[in-house]
Structure formats: structure tokens, C-alpha cells
Amino acid sequence: MTDDFDHGTADDKARKTPAGDDGAIADEKPGDGQPLTPFEERAWLRHQQYQYTPDQLALAWRLGPAVRPGRLAGALEAVLRVVPGLNVRYRFDEQGELRKFSVSPVIQPIAIEAIAVEEQAIAALLREQDKPCELHLEPPVRFLLFIGGPHGVILGAVAHAILGKQLSWTQILTALSAIYNGRPLPAHLRPAAQAGLTEGIWLANRGGRINLPGLYRDEARGAGEIVDFGQSRSRHTGAATRYGATLDAARLVPFMPPDGEPPSRLTALAVLFGCYLSAAGAGEEVTVGLPCADAGAEQAADDERLPEVKVRDNGRPLRERVAQAQADLASDGERSETLADAPDSPVRVIRLLDPSPSLRLAGVAAVRIPLPPARCCVDLALAVGDGPGETLSLELIAGPRVSPHIGGFLLERFVAWLAGPEAASPAAVNLPGAAAGGGQQEDEALPAAPPGSDGVQQDGIADLILAEFREALASPQMSLDDDFFDFGGHSLIATRVIGRLLSGRDIEIHINDLFSHPTARGLAALARRGDGLSAASSAAPTAHGDAAIAPLSLAQESLWKAYAAFEFGDIFNIPFALRFLDPVDETAFRQALLDVLERHSGLRTLFGEEQGGVRQRIVALGDLPHYQWFGYSHQCAAHDWRAALAQEAGHRFNLAAELPLRVRFMRDDESGQQILSLLFHHIVLDEWSVNLLMDELAYAYPCRAANRSPVWHNRPAPFHKFAIEQHKAGLNQAHLDYWVESLRGVKRGKPLFEAAATAENGGAPPSSAGGWVELKMERAVADGLYRLAREQGASLFNVAYAGIAAALHALGAPDDLVIGTSASGRNDARFFDTIGYFTTVVAHRLRFSAGMTLAALIEQVKNNINHSMPYTDVPIDLVEEALPDGDSPDGRHIFEVFIQLHAKNKLNGCFTLHDGSRVSFRQVDPQKSESLLGLQFEVMEEIIAGETSIRVLMSYRSQHYDAARVDLIAATLTRVFARLAEKRAAQLPLASLLPPPEAENPASLVAAPDAMTPGWDKARLRELLLPMLDADGEDIGDDENLLEYGLDSVRIMSLIAHWRSEGYEVDFVSLMKNPTLNGWRLLLAEGKDNLV
After folding, report:
1. Is the N or the C terminus of the chain less surrounded, counting Cβ atoms within 10 Å?
2. Which residue would you say has higher pLDDT here, 986 or 8?
3. Structure pTM?
């Protein structure tokens, strides 16, 4: 790899342009200098006057280990050559005129430094940022590469403001990406609107201060520096500090005026931030500076006169104050471009300079490292930019006069204030953390009404929420105070309700609020009413005509990759089977299915290679008779319906020539009942779609049985429309970055008992062969889980997920555990009623710690799932490819365990006919002989004959888990669920959920404690183990692998329980590291010194 770096050096002297005795620049040609613009002249003069406070800004990105450093260094040098005006020097010519000269060839090498930790790169960049740039010797933009750290390569750049009117980071990074990726440069590298090279917060104020207790450093009293030992000191080198947070963009909607020209979000945030500071500081006026041309023009020069807004907490509604500020700014007219007097404001709101979307290196996920500026002469600068999804990124920069430890707290409370009901109240004086002159305490305060609302209007919002509850849960009897979850609500239905309220009613609700306040009346107090834009855009008519051909969606592409890897077999078949307890009219059922196929063209789609990729082509309704997709019971020749179901489940689809579904009726000869096989290929059907399908059949079948055509009250958007729109939009890089950051550093998933599985399987090739077991919960246990979910403001899935994770952790799963799960993928409310494959697989990271309680684990699970919902459009394979270790050579996912919920499964129920009679049916569980994943848990929430029940289906790969280990996992999980169902279980430490097995437990295969002595030499250990081993009289060596002699996990867990009862601290993972007589003897010797 060192050959890649022959052209680069880290020596500082090599980074300067060599000059002769007369100071002339090497390679400078007489007469090739260019005159400076007025902006450059002023910037140069300022540079000469204030070299100790350079107008410079450092940026940095983690690029990971996948980037090629040599190739990147070459691309950076090429950028200096090809971007006009970038590789320049500023000096006086022979006539004494200040000019800028282009230097060719490039003699400015890229600095490359080796580091051990990321902090070294940050410290080097901050030093470079603080060092005055020698504009006559160096280019205004310099690049640095750092290699060898834990995050792979780090790209750093330091820019001087002198080029701010001519170049932008968007231009520079776009050119860099094109060169690195081997693509042609864009035809026109124009600066992007509102872009630049620096943040422009160097202008000093006149000494004004913010009346906020505790804001400023208390240096007069000789207080020593407070050191945060968890924070790198290099980040405080420049005296300024920087903190970040995200805010839902919709949180600004209540503060926007309902009429007239909408103000920019910078203006709105300037008013809100000023009001927050004013209210927290005894109501004094606060002046907030803004960038010039805030309404959306190109970024203004740093030396232009800054517009200001003056705000005071005076009891007026915030919406009115935002409107007034916008009007005041508009009335100021044209502003001079001459250097203005320094502004009075110690507070400023600026645009966040984050050009990361322009840095798109092939195979690399660039993640910005926020750095404090070299110079911040205001006390507080709030930088605002676009965040992931529909969010805003807020970064608070605190100047050198401000305490370096208050900025994070201040930003946290400001964001919490915006997100809570206090900010929307007519008078925003009761701020979190602000001094109050008495009255109601914060925990006793009643939530304020939404902006511009009174109690009557709030009741109106509650009625709208209740209407959505009733429709989504099919419960017209629900009242304003009924619990959403008591009527069958769950997280998927909650997502649907929230999406419909936002798109159809312009009412915004957060999913955590719904879990915490699950009644329509309680939720109305936390809801926010928008300005009508969301509802208007959603109500706009859309074309429903089916496109004949469409690309695959991102989720379908992900599935197709795995489908191809398994040689297009039956691994992605979804076999459902129903037993009808009452006679069903098969002809009417077929016609009802045709009604569904007419509405959902995705179910009548062929897949094949076209136009250089896989495409899906809709089959016209008139062509369906040419496809063999439906079979009547009299056409089924099989006498054993179970064998017929198994044969159907193993059908190998040819998706290029046959429909992705097969429907077959058959009969049980013993009972005479009809059995229905519903086989779908996963690429057209997800979990949400199953319940949609059953709902539509429940409506269409009674109509067809009565010889009527169903009259539908809505028309779902076609899946192909979703696929086309997603394909055009492309991958959301910000969403991918969210997952990469969340999962950075995780290891590939491994079997729970890896050492044993490896020893038993040897070098056998990977196999998906497996099986499944069912865990049925007693009614008391199910009731206890529901009670626990309500107590914790969580869902049943959150609780079940936490219970499974706790059980696996007790069996040896790591403290940093990655678990896969499915997300609905329906982030667009237009497609809530569409049958198709939207589901994405996502991975969440659980971190276990000593003394963790069950409540803490449930909260972590809930937050992991709910906070990641906006980012679930990114399939897991793209996330895994973007992680630093990239694709796994053996195809393993980053998770071994997968947990999913089948909420309110509608495969058990009935069709109610028009005459009032019923056709009841029950699901027949499929027999599974394969498992794509190591361990998969399906939490089945079912309603049968009006009774709710819970069971868990556990699928497993036989190569990873033999029968004994499967039994151990099942038994452990059963015991953990029983503990979870106990009252006050939430406060239990996780360690108490799984006590050691009792001696009389059949799984305990060792003698009772009184039959053993504490001394464990090799002879006694051999005496204990030999009866458990399949040694057939052989003499087992001291260093032979005991697992090769049939010592399974059940026996090992029993040994652990026995040794722990004697006071030895041993665990499964430690025993598996060296499963030999010598290894265990030494481990027990160590454990004797660490008695429990």
C-alpha cells in the first residue's frame, strides 16, 4: 500500500510553494496574474490585519476502510488542478499590484498522516485551522488525509474565506467524487445556492451580553478549569465549542403564520431561539443576527451588513412574533455590500455548512465529523441545516466567553421546549429549566392547547383522532377515553393512524406519544395542527393507471439478491393454509380473489431480465385465464391433504412465466372439511399485506356469495407506482448514514453456541436446512405481558422482543447484541392500503450492562424501534455493504437472531355473509424445513373466537442448533416469559429473570450439590464428566475437545448451575473458549478465587 503514497508527505515544509530569493513563485509566468474582486481585496486586508484570528474553517469526514487512499490522494491533487480558481496564490506583482496567480503544475502535495486514534486527526485539523494561512505560498483550500485510525481513512480540509464568493464546497466535493469514481466532470461547476466555504461567524460584536445566568465563564473569581474526562481536550483547543441535535421539521409548522408569504425557517428559528433566551433570562430583549438574503438567495458575503431581529418574551403568541419579524426584515429593503459596523448581537442564526451530500465516493459512506470553528466572535450561533428524513439538524456553537459546558444543556432544553406543548402556548414563559416565580410545578402542569386553539378546537382534534381509531380498529363503539391498545391496537396500526392523521387531517402525532397517551382525548393534548399543506398535498389527485413495466423497489432488489443466491429455489415461498370449519363456495371465493387481483396489480406481475435489470410486468386481467393459478378441491387428486400442502409449499416458482401466487382447495377425507392452500412468493406480499388481503376477501366473498359485485369505497395506489417513484428518487443517503452510524463497529452474527456448532459441523458447507418449534403461552402469562406493556408505555412486541433478548443474553449472547427485525417500509400514507412487498429488514443494537433492569431493556427496545422508523426505507443488504467490514465472505448477516410480530393475525376468523351466517376458518401452521436465519422468532398475536392468545414460533438452522440446544432455548424462553408476567417484573434486574435450574429439574444432568466436593483436580473433573460423554471406554486426553464426545449445551448449562451453587463464578462463554479437561480445571481454579 505504501506505493500509493509516493506522491504525498506529511512534512509541513513540502506543503508550501518554494520561492526564490526574490520571493517569486515557482512556475509563475509574468503577466498571468488576475485582479482581485472587491470581496477578495477586503478579505485579504482582513487577513493581513487579523492573522492571529484566521477566517478559516476545518471540515472532516470519516470514510471508513473501503476507500483507497492512494486513489483519493491523486483525486485531491486533480481537484486542485481542474477546479478553476482553487489552486491560486495571492501576492504583489512587479508593479506592486496585488493579484492572484494560478500555479501549474500543482506543487502542493496532499498531507498524509498516520494516526492511532481519531482524536489525533481532530487535533491536527484544529491546529491547521488555527494556524494563519500564508496566502502567498499556500492555496486557500488545503487537504489532509489521516490513515490507520479505528474508522479507517479520515478526510480533512481547511478553507480560507477569501474564495467564499467564487467557490463552494459543493463544487469542490462534486469534482472530487467524479474524479475518484472515474466519471467525467459536470459541465458546469457552479456554486450551490446558500453555499460557501466558511460559516461567517468571525465578525465581533460590540460587547453585548445575554442576560442568562450561568452562561458565561466565571474567570474573575479564579475558578479552575472544569475538565470533562470523557471528552477529547483537542475539541476545546479553539475555545469555541459545538453541540448538535435533530428536530422534526414539522415542529416549526405551528409557529408559521397561516396567511401571507411563509417566513424562512432561519427567521422562524431566530425568533424562537431569541424568545427562549429572553424567557429564560428574565424577559430581556435579545437581538439575533441572520445571514443576508435569508429568503433563499445565494449565501451572502461575510462582510455584508447582517439583518437582525429583536425579540422579547412579552406574552404575544409566537406565531405572531414570527410574522412580525418577517415583515420587519422585508421592509428593510436593499442592503449595502460595504463593510458594515460590527453588529450588536451576541446571538446569531446561520445556515449549517454541511456539504456531505456532495461527497459521494464509490463504495464509501462519508460521515461528517463536526468540528468547532477557529474563530467565533459571537456568544451563541445556532446553525440550521437539513437532517435525516423530515428533520432539521441544529448545531449550537458557543463562543470563547461562554462556559464550554453549558452549550449542550442549552441546546437540549431548547429542542425539548420546541417539541413540547409549552412553546405553543400564548405566553412562553414557563420554559424548562427557567426560574419560575412560584405556581404550579412542571410535573403538575397541564399540557397547553395547540397553537391558535382553545379547548373546543382541542376537542375537535380529539374527535378526529377518535374517528381514525375507530376506522383502523373497526371499533365504532370506542369513546374518547378508551385505550387504543385495549381495542386491538399495535405498532403497525399505530403507524397507519399516525400517517393518516398527518396526510389526511394535517395533525402530527409522535408514536412514542401514542404509546404514552393511548386515548384520543389524551393524545389530542400532544398533537400539533399543521398549516394544511400536508393534507392538501396528500389530497392532490394521482394517476392510478398501472404502468405496464416497472423497476424493482429497493426492498424487492434486496430480496432478489438473496433469491438469486439461493438459486431461485423455494426459500422465499410464503405458504398459508386455512381450514374452513364451514362450507365455502369455491367459485365465489375465486371470484372474490379476482376482485382483489383487479385492485392490486402487483399480485398479477411477472418478473424477468429486461433493459439491463430485473423488471416487473403487469399481466392484464383479460390474460389471467392463460395462467394456472387457481385449483378447485375436486381437481386435487391427493388423498393426504398434509402431503398436498407440503408439495405446494415446496413449489419452485418461475416468476418470468407464472403468477407469483398459487391458490388450491383440497379436502380432508376424514372430516370432509375444505383446506385452502394460499402460496405467495415473498416478492409481492409482506406481513402487512396479509391482513389487507384477508380484509378485502372478507368484504368481497360475501358479495360474490350473494351473487353481487363488491362496491369499493377506495382505490389503493398500485405498487408499481411506489416502485417507480422510489427508483427515481434513489437511495436516501442520509438514511443510510443513520444506519451506518448506529451499527458502526458491530461484528457479524454468530451462533449462540458457536464453539459447539463449529466442532460438530466441522467443515460442512453452509445449509439452510432447519426446523421449528412452537411455544404456547398460558392465558395468565399473556395477560401479564399485556399488563407489563401498558405499565411501560410500550407495545406487546417491545415486551416480547425484550424477553427474547434477555433469555438469549442469559444463554451467552454478547453484551453488544444485534437483532434483526422487520419494518413495514410504508412511510408514505398513500400506500397504506396497497398489497405488495414494502417490508425491509433492519437491525437494532441492544447494549446490556451490569444491573440493567427489565424496564430499562424494554425502554431501549422501544426507542430503538420507534426512533429508527423514519429511516426504514433502506434494506439491510445496503447497510451491511456500507459498514466498514463490507460484505461478509461467508454471506452472514450482522445478526444471528431475528424477531418479528404477526399482530392480530387475521388468518383465524370468519366471513360474515349477508344473511348473517358465518364461514369460519383457522390457520394451519406450515411445516418448515428450512431457515434463512440462524434463529427466527415469530410472535403470533391471534384472536380466535373472541379470545386473544399469544404464541411464539421459533425457526432455526440445524447446523447452528441441534435438538438439545433448541430445547434449552425454548425452555429458557418459557421461564423468562413467566417471570415477565409477574407483577412488578419491570424493576427486576435481568440477572434475576433466569435463576439457575433446580437440581430436580430433568434438564439438570449432574449430581446434587451434597454429592460433590469443592476441590476440582483433573481426576475428580474426569470422574464427573465421563458419565456424560460418549467415550465408549476411551481414555480422553487432558487437552481433547470435550464437545467431540457428545457433551451438549444442556449438560453444560447444568454443570454451570451446579458449580455456581458451590460458589464458582463460571459462564458458558468462558467454558466454550477451551472445552478441555485442562481448560476447565484452570477456569475452576480461577473461579474459586472469585466466589459468588
Report:
1. N
2. 986
3. 0.51
Tens digit of pLDDT for each residue in 735-786? 999 999 999 888 888 888 765 555 455 556 666 677 888 888 999 999 999 9
Residue 247, all three cell numbers = 428536530
Let me know: does 692 contact 833? Beta carbons within 8 Å. Answer: yes
Q: Residue 586 is placed in which grid cell?
A: 369455491
Residue ranges per domain, the chain? 2-180, 233-436, 455-539, 549-725, 771-827+851-906+931-991, 1009-1088
Task: From the options 3.40.140.10, 3.90.1170.50, 3.60.10.10, 1.10.1200.10, give the CATH code of 1009-1088.
Answer: 1.10.1200.10
pLDDT of residue 816: 92
1040 neighbors 1076 (Cβ within 8 angstroms): yes
As assigned by CATH, the class of the 549-725 domain is: alpha beta
Write out the three cell numbers for 597.
Answer: 387481483
C-alpha cell at 286: 435579545
Helix (H, G, I), strand (E, B) or coil at 967: helix
CATH code given to domain 2-180: 3.30.559.10
- Closest listed residue to residue 926, CA positions, set 694, 771, 695: 771
Non-local (6+) Cβ contacts of 1002 within 8 A are none
Instruction: Give the tens place of pLDDT for each residue, 634-670.
Output: 888 777 898 899 899 889 999 999 999 999 999 998 8
* Same fold: 455-539 with 549-725: no
Structure confidence at residue 842 as a pLDDT band (50, 70, 90): very high
Q: Where are the alpha helices (DSSP H) in 102-210?
A: 118-130, 169-180
- CB-based contact 867:845 (threshold 8 Å): no
d(CA 192, CA 179): 19
What phi, psi does 381 have (nearest 5°)?
Answer: -125, 120
- C-alpha grid cell for residue 169? 464546497
In the CATH hierarchy, which top-level class contains the domain 233-436? alpha beta
